[in-house]
Amino acid sequence: MDIYTGPVGQANVTQQIHDYSPPIAANGLFWTIPIDPDNLEVNLDSARASFHIADLAIPDFHDLANNLTNGHGLSNPPIPPIAPVPATVSFDVEWSGEISRAKVVNEMQNFSGDFIETGSTIKWSSEQNGFFFDSEDPNPARNIGAIIGREGNGVFFGKEADDE
Asked: Which of 41, 81, 125, 142 is the most exposed place for a label (fewest CB within 10 A)?
């Protein structure tokens, strides 16, 4: 999750003041960490899902440039090096209200999926030494777009949900 100064929807890398992301793993995998399956509920038949995380320890890299360079900043555009600091984040994300469904199959790329466009909301907060952020209450009318679904790729391409 990121926080910027300036108008909403006009994010500029030089206006970013917080970047909460898992560190990049030694194997290059980034922005991904395992979570307890109990934090996620999905019912594709009813086009509903929810994701809840409380007090997840995660670093604040300050901005995308310092996130991707592990705190070394950039020379152009000039973004000073800033070391990550310990923080925690909490999320409540809800998806519901089927808008449309789509099935995608790309055999050349070994990819298939069943996807559902829905409404969604998020409420989130962050906390670290000297700073606390709490998002405004969720407002479904401000949803730009959301999709939930099931996909299969690589070795999982062509397998049914029950086969996994």
From this structure: 142
Q: Average pLDDT in the 136-141 region?
A: 90
Domain residues for 136? 2-163
φ, ψ at 141 (rounded to 5°): -65, -20
Question: Is the distance from CB of 21 to CB of 85 less than 8 angstroms?
Answer: no
Determine if the peptide bond prior to 77 is cis (ω within 30°). Answer: yes
- Read off the pLDDT of residues 73-108 as tens digits, 9 standing for 90 and up: 989 888 899 999 999 999 999 999 999 999 999 999
User: Is residue 16's pLDDT more than 50?
Assistant: yes
- Scan for tokens 């409540």, then name that residue: 92
Tokens of 42: 């999905």
**Are 62 and 82 a contacting pair, CB within 8 Å?**
yes
- 10 Å CB burial of residue 76 (0-12, 13-18, 19+) is exposed
Q: Which residues are CB-neighbours of 41 under 8 A, at least 6 positions away?
A: 48, 49, 50
Confidence at residue 125, expressed as pLDDT on a 0 to 100 scale:
97
- CA dist., res. 32 & res. 18, Å (int): 18
